[in-house]
């Protein structure tokens, strides 16, 4: 019989592959670093998950499962009730969905505590969107830690919003559609209101939800952030001086670098073979995340820009969900439905248009020299890890702030747009068309060396940050040490709660 670990953590990720993947990778790192730890990940299922998402999730979990890492799928609530909640209150949906799962978590944790030979529970580790589960942890007398899957700067921004609201009853939603700028302590430069996430500007619930997240994050015993100190040194220093903030542990980059089953499929093999035939650093890769999609008019502008630029390209294109529906984009059955007539034939020698893309594998390929990205935080960390400079085209969530940080604060990217918004939950207004000339200009600045002071400077900075990202997680590196500090706090808590 195997000896029980000295301490067990309960991880609760938010629904969505972006949150789940990094949570699983963080859990794997912790149990690999210390044999005294075991982890149970409680997974909340939404009734909207499609078969492909469910299959991908199951494959990820099967590969990750180890003796001290368990995955539990919680019971699923009534789909009709959840669908009604989402349609009536998109701003509060995630908050209420997590609240609906409290009893399922309570039931499972009770089983864990009553199980013979189980490890003593050391606390919950919740996603930023799962802070309502802190109430359940408190019922069991357990502390809660958070795993923050966005940047250190975004964490600092949320905490600053909470301070402004508490101290002066300030309403951030008044900045919606404003040209104003906001002074935020963790940013060197004032942040334009147009670069703020749609959710915090949403009067019907979104802003209240995010302020609730910030308030609860302050109440945690510590916050792990998927970043590394060398990337966000200014934000790290500023928050270190705030005695109203719990201990913060930069533990990244936490990345899923293992080859997935989907990469064995024929379509993916053909993508990689195509890249093998391209010269080094010659291909611009366009990919906009799991929720990124454009309507036909915008797709045609992108196509025109690529054709005009004459750069080699690999373009991941997804079909938007039906109007008014908050769903994942799907694959086009026929790309000729949306692309300009003759585009595929005219660009056959230099370009390839695909559906789903194996992003890390593509970014790791020597042929790829630039990345037109939505600036999701996972994608940002992946591009830096692989040493590929970015042209920013943010769409939803906190991506506008990530883009602002990359371009204005850190000098690690060029901009196509910093304030583009296509947020199906919180923006009812259609985004303005980004023209072919704007896109082409961004691609040229990304891929060409005409302006040595800018393009070459960015490439050199990205190269240096790539090295720093890899050093950070090695023994003695900043994130390696930060993880050790977190583990020590967890273990001490078990013996002296």
Helix-strand blueprint:
Blueprint: E1 7-12, H1 17-33, E2 37-43, H2 51-64, E3 69-73, H3 79-88, H4 93-100, H5 102-114, E4 121-127, H6 134-139, E5 144-148, H7 152-168, E6 181-182, E7 191-192, H8 206-218, E8 222-225, H9 233-240, E9 248-250, H10 266-276, E10 283-287, H11 296-309, E11 312-316, H12 343-346, E12 351-354, H13 359-363, E13 368-373, H14 377-386, E14 390-392, H15 399-409, E15 413-415, H16 436-447, H17 452-472, H18 478-495
Parallel strand pairs: 1-2, 1-4, 2-3, 4-5, 5-8, 8-9, 10-11, 10-13, 11-12, 13-14, 14-15
Antiparallel strand pairs: 6-7
Helix pairs in contact: 1-2, 7-8, 11-16
The whole-number mean of residue pLDDT values reads: 89
How many helix segments?
Answer: 18
SSE class: alpha/beta
* Count of beta strands: 15
Portion in strands: 5-15%
Main sheet record: 7 strands, parallel
- The end-to-end distance, rounded to whole angstroms, is 28 Å
> What percent of residues adopt helix (DSSP H or I)?
40-55%
Rg, Cα atoms, Å: 22 Å
Order of strands, widest sheet: 3-2-1-4-5-8-9
Based on Cα principal axes, name the global outline: globular
Spans of 5+ residues with little confidence (pLDDT < 50)?
Answer: none
Description:
By secondary structure, the chain is of the alpha/beta class. Helix content is 43%, strand content 13%. The chain contains 18 helices and 15 strands. The protein has helices spanning 17-33, 51-64, 79-88, 93-100, 102-114, 134-139, 152-168, 206-218, 233-240, 266-276, 296-309, 343-346, 359-363, 377-386, 399-409, 436-447, 452-472, 478-495; strands at 7-12, 37-43, 69-73, 121-127, 144-148, 181-182, 191-192, 222-225, 248-250, 283-287, 312-316, 351-354, 368-373, 390-392, 413-415. A 7-stranded parallel β-sheet has the order 3-2-1-4-5-8-9, sandwiched between helices. A 6-stranded parallel β-sheet has the order 12-11-10-13-14-15, with helices on both faces. The chain has a two-stranded antiparallel ribbon with strand order 6-7. Strand 10 (283-287), helix 11 and strand 11 (312-316) form a beta-alpha-beta unit. Helix 1 runs parallel beside helix 2 (51-64). The longest helix is centred in the last third of the chain and has 21 residues, at 452-472. The chain is globular. It starts with 6 loop residues before the first strand and ends with a helix. The mean pLDDT is 89.
């Amino acid at each position: 019989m195997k000896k029980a670990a000295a301490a067990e953590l309960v991880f609760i990720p938010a629904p969505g592959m972006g949150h789940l993947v990094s949570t699983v990778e963080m859990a794997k790192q912790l149990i690999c670093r210390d044999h005294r730890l075991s982890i149970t990940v409680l997974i909340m299922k939404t009734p909207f998950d499609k078969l492909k998402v469910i299959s991908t999730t199951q494959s990820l979990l099967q590969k990750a499962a180890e003796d001290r890492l368990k995955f539990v799928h919680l019971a699923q609530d009534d789909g009709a009730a959840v669908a009604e909640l989402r349609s009536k209150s998109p701003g509060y949906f995630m908050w209420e969905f997590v609240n609906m799962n409290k009893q399922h978590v309570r039931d499972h944790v009770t089983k864990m505590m009553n199980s013979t030979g189980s490890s003593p529970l050391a606390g919950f580790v919740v996603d930023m969107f799962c802070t309502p589960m802190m109430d359940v942890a408190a019922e069991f007398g357990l502390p809660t830690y958070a795993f923050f899957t966005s940047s250190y700067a975004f964490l600092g921004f949320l905490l600053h919003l909470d301070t402004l609201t508490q101290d002066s009853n300030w309403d951030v939603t008044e900045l919606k559609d404003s040209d104003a700028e906001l002074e935020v302590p963790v940013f060197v430069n004032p942040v334009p209101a147009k670069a703020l996430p749609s959710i915090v500007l949403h009067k019907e619930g979104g802003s209240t939800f995010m302020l609730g997240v910030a308030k609860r994050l302050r109440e945690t015993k510590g916050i792990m952030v998927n970043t590394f100190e060398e990337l966000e040194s200014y934000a790290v220093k500023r928050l270190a001086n705030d005695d109203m903030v719990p201990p913060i542990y930069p533990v990244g980059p936490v990345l899923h670098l293992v080859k997935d089953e989907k990469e064995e499929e024929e379509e993916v093999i053909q993508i990689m073979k195509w890249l093998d035939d391209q010269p080094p650093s010659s291909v611009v890769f366009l990919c906009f995340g799991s929720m990124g999609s454009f309507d036909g008019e915008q797709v045609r502008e992108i196509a025109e820009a690529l054709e005009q630029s004459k750069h080699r390209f690999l373009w991941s294109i997804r079909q938007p969900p039906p109007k008014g529906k908050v769903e994942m984009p799907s694959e086009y059955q026929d790309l000729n439905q949306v692309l300009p007539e003759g585009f595929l034939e005219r660009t056959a020698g230099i370009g390839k248009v695909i559906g789903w893309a194996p992003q890390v594998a593509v970014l790791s390929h020597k042929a790829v020299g630039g990345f037109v990205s939505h600036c999701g935080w996972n994608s940002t960390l992946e591009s830096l890890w692989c040493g590929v400079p970015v042209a920013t085209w943010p769409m939803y969530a906190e991506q506008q702030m990530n883009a602002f940080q990359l371009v204005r604060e850190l000098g690690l990217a060029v901009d196509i747009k910093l304030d583009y918004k296509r947020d199906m939950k919180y923006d009812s207004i259609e985004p303005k068309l980004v023209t072919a000339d704007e896109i082409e200009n961004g691609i040229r600045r990304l891929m060409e060396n005409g302006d040595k002071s800018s393009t070459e400077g960015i490439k050199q900075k990205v190269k240096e940050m790539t090295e720093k990202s890899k050093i950070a997680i090695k023994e003695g590196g900043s994130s390696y040490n930060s993880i050790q500090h977190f583990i020590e706090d967890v273990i001490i808590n078990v013996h002296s709660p």
